[in-house]
Amino acid sequence: MKKRNMTRASVSLLIAAGLTLCTLGAMAAVERTAAPEGAKAYIISPENGSTVPQTFVVQFGLSGMGVAPAGADLPKTGHHHLLVDMDSLPPLDQPIGADILHFGGGQTETEITLPPGEHTLQILLGDKNHIPHDPPIVSERITITVE
C-alpha cells in the first residue's frame, strides 16, 4: 500500500512538473519585445536584382533603433539575422533558429558564399533573447543572381 501511494505521488509530481514546464514554455514563447515605432531593417548591399560573385558582402541597414549584441538588455536595440532562400518568416513567438544566419555580436555586415543561381536575402531583427520584435522588424526580400 505504501509503495502504491509513493508511485501515485511520484506520478502526480511528474505531471505537475510537466504542466509547469509547459506553462513556462508557453509564457516564454509569447514574450516579445515591442518594436520601436518606425523602426526599419533593410539591405544596403547588394541591391535587389544585382548579379554578384559566389562570395560577396551583405551590408545590413537599420533605422529608428540601434544594434546591440544578443543578450544586451538595452532599450530600442536588436541584432540581425539573415534569411537566405526562405519563402516565409520563421515562427515569431520563439527564438530564431540555428538554420538562419545569426549575427549576435552586433555585426552590420557579413561575407557569404552561395552557389550559382538565383537567391533571396532578407533581414529579420531579433531582441536580446533572439526573439523577433512585435511587430517584426524585417527587411524587404531581395533577389540576387550569383555567377
UniProtKB/TrEMBL annotation:
What UniProt keywords apply to this chain's record, in alphabetical order?
A: Signal
List each copy of the DUF4399 domain by range. 58-147
Q: Which InterPro entries match?
A: DUF4399
Which superkingdom?
Answer: Bacteria
Position of the signal peptide? 1-28
By what name is this protein known? Uncharacterized protein DUF4399
Q: Give the source lineage, highest ranks first.
A: Bacteria, Pseudomonadati, Pseudomonadota, Gammaproteobacteria, Chromatiales
